[in-house]
Amino acid sequence: MDSVRWLARGMHDVPEPDDWLSPRESERLAPLRFPKRRMESRLARWTAKHAVACALGLDAGLVTLASIEIERASSGAPVVYVAGNPAPVAVSMTDRADWAVCAVAGRGMGVGTDLELVEFRTEAFVRDWFTPAERDRVLGAAPGQWRDLLANLVWSAKESALKVLETGLRRDTRSVEVDVIETNGEQRWARLAVRSEEGVMFPGWWHRYGDFLLTVVADVDSFPPTTMDEPPRLTSAVPSHSWLPKQ
């Protein structure tokens, strides 16, 4: 059975200079005028580069990080190169509230990950984006922490599965349906599954870390995801929004 490893980093970890970016990456980020997009793009790349370096047994020096490039396939899915050569890994990237996660698997394995906050989701949101079965499960739960967690869990698992499908939100979120198999993801990695409307099943996992919720979905069955940090940084992560203007 395959395995997925993951790494989390916070906005405070990202250095101000861009000497860890490749020249092409610097050119790609230069036109980003809005602070939010630029800061989140830098955070996602910083996290992914460290995750790839760790997975491949490389050092995390600036020269090595600059040699690791995160490109995009025509589908929009991330593709990794090291020193100009395709890396033997598959990655998925996600960020939320000044934190980013990169999941790394072997090349040829489809993997998707999504990071969300456990926060209130309106009934209108659930009705607009969820399948009838998902709506019944979420709206049938008693209002409160479990209902908030469940709504965000279903949404996060959908996002992860759509990354495996390499479509993202270009595809209708109701074309995939989430089954929360195990409900104890606040203590450990718990199982879930996502079925596409074509009948393809994508096994996955979920885990809550404080205010954050992390899902990992793959196109093959896998062991529970393992962190590259021990303990994982998300355990003590505090959500923030550093791109907002300071008062």
SS content category: alpha+beta
How far apart, in Å, are the first and last alpha carbons? 51 Å
Strand content: 25-35%
Radius of gyration: 18 Å
> Biggest sheet, open or closed, and with what strands and sense?
5 strands, antiparallel
Number of helical stretches of at least 4 residues: 6
Envelope shape:
globular
Report the helical percentage.
25-40%
SSE string, helix = H, strand = E? Answer: EHHHEEEEEEHHHEEEEE
| Low-confidence sequence ranges | none
- The side-by-side strand order for the widest beta sheet comes to 7-11-10-9-8
Number of strands: 12
Mean pLDDT over the full residue set: 95
Would you write up a description of this structure?
The chain is α+β, with helices and mostly antiparallel strands. The protein is 28% helix and 28% strand. The protein is globular and about 50 Å long. 39% of the residues are buried.
Q: How are the secondary structure elements laid out?
A:
Elements: E1 5-10, H1 23-29, H2 35-55, H3 62-67, E2 68-72, E3 78-82, E4 85-86, E5 89-96, E6 99-106, E7 111-117, H4 123-129, H5 132-139, H6 145-164, E8 176-179, E9 190-196, E10 201-209, E11 212-218, E12 226-227
Parallel strand pairs: 1-12
Antiparallel strand pairs: 1-6, 2-3, 3-4, 5-6, 7-11, 8-9, 9-10, 10-11
